[in-house]
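Below is a filled-in request sheet from our internal design queue. Each sheet records the structural input a requester submitted and the sequence that came back. We keep these sheets so that new team members can see what a complete request looks like end to end.

REQUESTER: design group, bay 2
PRIORITY: normal
MODE: inverse folding
CHAIN LENGTH: 430
BACKBONE (tokenized):
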């Protein structure tokens, strides 16, 4: 079949590269374990407090270290042996998961300890993820790079789909409950460490920039000067800050569906299913030329899906709308990554992608805080509905105020899948 008509993911990198295969399998298994912990933390905080605001504060514990540490990720990655750096961060992340399991088994019920462990975890991920994003180009020939990045996006969606559903089943069925989620996450790091330990040495380049404020400022200055890149980042922030009501999921589940943990797991799993289907059949996206406008459209679809989720009367419609949101998110990530790849020079790529990670991760965390706070002041339904509608309005405003971004058209010879943004390229614990 001609490449232009290919719909399914190309598995050639898994067949040809043993190192990539080990990394992909280890990362996928470990990322599913990370989804168990993410689910368990949210549910444990809600069980302790019965407050959507308390659940939203998890986002603060994640956002502050993400923004403080994440922006250094690019320069640090360029000046360190990346394999050793990820081995250190992954080992420390395994220790954090073990600590979460320990507090659950001890029955401590200490809210500040949960927030502190989440903050430490986010600090480590902020270094780990930019470093992981460099592995695939180092392991695969250029002819297989696009296929490798697509497979990693697929891995991310497998985690999004299977992790929350599995967590809900474990929390509801196992006598260990949330403790089992934390424990399985800690054990899953064995697979991630094995995959990274067998990688070749990845020493820094001789002309790499020195980490520090000057390198960070240079990257942000470039983003500010580029209306196209700034538009892509603002569109993503608009979607994640206003249209990501994950902090409301436990309360909406309790209000409409009796608070069953299995149903709560299906909420996030539905988003993953939509993203999984979109990632598996994303071949035609490479032919979209007006990527700025396309990104604004997918952001608007994301907002509309969550607005519908807020008022959906039944479980199946609720899950269907979440799946639509997940599909729109996959395309948004692809367009954002393609735009960043096309307009960013090589010497600034590490810093711009580090900022891209901070935008993606920090925006989502701020969105959880906003949704949780508004849900406490009004109701979970009003918060989710308002957030979705504001997201649609924000996409329209960005298109009108940043016409260069709205009219941006990729060059005919560019590959829209040449780079995928770090959060999607190599899944890591969150």
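RETURNED SEQUENCE:
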């Amino acid at each position: 079949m001609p490449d232009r008509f290919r719909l399914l993911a190309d598995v050639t990198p898994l067949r040809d590269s043993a190192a990539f295969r080990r990394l992909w399998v280890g990362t996928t298994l470990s990322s599913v374990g990370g989804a168990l912990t993410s689910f368990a933390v949210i549910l444990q905080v809600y069980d302790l407090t019965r407050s959507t605001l308390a659940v939203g504060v998890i986002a603060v514990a994640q956002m502050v270290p993400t923004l403080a540490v994440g922006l250094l990720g690019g320069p640090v990655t360029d000046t360190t042996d990346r394999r050793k750096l990820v081995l250190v961060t992954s080992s420390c992340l395994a220790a954090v998961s073990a600590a979460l399991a320990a507090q659950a088994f001890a029955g401590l019920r200490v809210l500040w300890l949960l927030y502190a462990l989440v903050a430490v975890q986010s600090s480590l991920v902020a270094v780990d993820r930019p470093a992981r994003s460099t592995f695939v180009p180092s392991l695969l020939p250029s002819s297989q790079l696009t296929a490798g990045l697509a497979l990693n996006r697929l891995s991310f969606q497998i985690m999004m789909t299977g992790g929350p559903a599995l967590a809900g089943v474990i929390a509801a069925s196992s006598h260990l409950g949330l403790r089992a989620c934390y424990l399985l996450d800690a054990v899953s790091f064995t697979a991630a460490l094995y995959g990274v330990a067998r990688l070749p040495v990845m020493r820094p380049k001789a002309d790499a920039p020195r980490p520090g404020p000057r390198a960070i400022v240079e990257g942000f200055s470039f983003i500010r000067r580029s209306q196209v890149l700034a538009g892509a980042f603002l569109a993503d922030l608009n979607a994640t800050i206003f249209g990501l009501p994950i902090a409301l999921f436990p309360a909406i589940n309790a209000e409409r569906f009796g608070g069953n943990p299995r149903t709560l797991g299906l909420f996030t799993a539905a988003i993953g299913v939509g993203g999984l289907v979109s990632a598996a059949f994303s071949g035609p996206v490479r032919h979209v030329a007006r990527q700025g406008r396309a990104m604004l459209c997918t952001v608007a679809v994301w907002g509309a899906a969550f607005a519908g989720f807020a008022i959906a009367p039944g479980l199946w419609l609720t899950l269907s709308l979440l799946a639509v949101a997940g599909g729109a998110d996959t395309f948004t990530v692809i367009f954002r990554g393609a735009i960043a790849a096309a307009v960013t020079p090589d010497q600034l790529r590490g810093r711009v992608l580090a900022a891209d990670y901070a935008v993606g991760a920090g925006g989502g965390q701020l969105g959880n805080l906003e949704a949780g706070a508004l849900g406490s002041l009004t109701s979970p339904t009003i918060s989710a509905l308002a957030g979705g509608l504001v997201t649609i309005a924000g996409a329209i405003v960005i298109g009108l105020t940043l016409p260069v971004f709205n009219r941006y058209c990729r060059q005919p010879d560019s590959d829209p899948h040449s780079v995928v943004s770090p959060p999607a390229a190599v899944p890591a614990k969150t």
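SHEET NOTES:
- Residues 413-430 have pLDDT under 50 and may be disordered.
- The chain has one domain: 3-425.
FILED BY: M.R.
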